[in-house]
Amino acid sequence: VEGLREFDFGPQAPAAEALIEARVDLTLWRATDGFSGGETIGSFQKRVNETMEQLVGAHEGRRVIACTHAGFIDAAIRWAYGIGPDGDWLTEAEIANASITEFEHWLRGRHPEGAPRHTLIRRIGDVVHLSPELRSDN
Fold it and tell me: How far is 136 from 98, CA to CA, in rounded Å?
């Protein structure tokens, strides 16, 4: 699924080594932040929200397994909480490599008299399925 790809920093972003060393990614927090030629935080969140809606809509009532990246998972958690693309990024979840994040989503709400949509977050960044030597710090 094309929409599951990680945040696109674009060609004007610093080289990967410099980006990681200086944590330049942490300077991007406003919805309008981004590097020239890449996504903004807001456009990334919009893509993730649309991808999540398409996935749950196309597979309503069925389990969907998606392999993706930590940034996408952070944005999917924001989607689960109903945070739109115009919201600033003021929090994040620690997502370990090969971890499991699990949602249960009701497109039309969990109860007829309740919210019009509802998402239960069952677990975030769970690595219990991995042996200790395979677990990473991030």
Answer: 9
In what helix (H) or strand (E) does residue 101 lie, and over which residues does it extend? strand 100-106
Find the helix or strand (DSSP H, E) in which 71 lies: helix 70-80
135: helix, coil or strand? coil
Dihedral of CA 62/119/124/29: which sign? positive
Contact 74, 92 (CB under 8 A): yes
pTM: 0.90
**Nearest one of 53, 32, 38, 54 to 6, comparing CA atoms:** 38
Judge whether 127 and 104 are in contact, CB under 8 Å: no
Burial class of residue 101 in the structure, from the number of CB atoms within 10 Å of its CB (0-12 exposed, 13-18 middle, 19+ buried): buried
Q: What would the pLDDT profile of 5-25 be if each residue is shown by its tens digit?
A: 999 999 999 998 888 899 988
